[in-house]
């Protein structure tokens, strides 16, 4: 194992299927189908991952921290708050924090979420996130 791999190993995190299943623990869970949901990784460090999980009715923000025994649902939003007639109802904006990360705001309620710049080299995070939400929920 090379030095950098020791600090960025995927096997210390839950699988994407387990992250999707975790939405069942939310107070807002409404018998959605986790296996049909879509997942979007937007923050990644050696100790944490942050995902959006989109079902047919809700968008969940989930933090997976390797130092904790379970992932954590930070927040969720209903489809009616996000999408109307195939268009996004909320704004998504990003700004710089430093060399490797930035902040992304997801609507008015969910501001200053860290994102990893290296995950969005070919396309801006705002465009990737908008496309993800619209394709999953639009």
Question: Could you please describe the fold and organization of this structure?
Answer:
The model is unreliable at 1-8 (pLDDT under 50). It is built from four helices and nine strands, in the order ααββββαβββββα. The N and C termini lie far apart (42 Å). The chain is of the alpha+beta class and 138 residues long.
Salient structural properties:
138 residues; globular; 37% strand; PH-domain like; disordered N terminus; 4-stranded antiparallel β-sheet
Summarize the structure.
This protein is an alpha+beta fold. The chain has a single domain, classed as Roll (PH-domain like), CATH 2.30.29. It has 4 helices and 9 strands.
Residue share in helix: 10-25%
The number of distinct β-strands equals 9
Overall mean pLDDT: 90
Q: Count helical runs.
A: 4
Strand order of the largest sheet: 1-2-3-4
Q: What summary fits the major beta sheet? A: 4 strands, antiparallel
**Name of the CATH class:** Mainly Beta
| Alpha carbon gyration radius | 15 Å
What is the string of SSEs from the N terminus onward?
HHEEEEHEEEEEH
């Amino acid at each position: 194992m090379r030095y950098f791999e020791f600090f960025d190993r995927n096997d210390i995190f839950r699988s994407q299927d387990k992250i999707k299943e975790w939405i069942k623990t939310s107070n807002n869970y409404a018998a959605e189908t986790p296996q049909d949901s879509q997942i979007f990784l937007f923050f990644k460090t050696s100790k944490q991952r942050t995902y959006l999980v989109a079902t047919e009715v809700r968008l969940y923000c989930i933090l997976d921290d390797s130092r904790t025994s379970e992932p954590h649902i930070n927040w969720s939003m209903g489809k009616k708050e996000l999408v109307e007639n195939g268009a996004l109802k909320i704004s998504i904006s990003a700004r710089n924090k430093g060399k490797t990360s930035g902040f992304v705001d997801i609507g008015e309620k969910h501001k200053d979420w860290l994102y990893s710049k290296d995950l969005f080299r070919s396309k801006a995070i705002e465009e990737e996130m908008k496309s993800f939400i619209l394709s999953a929920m639009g």
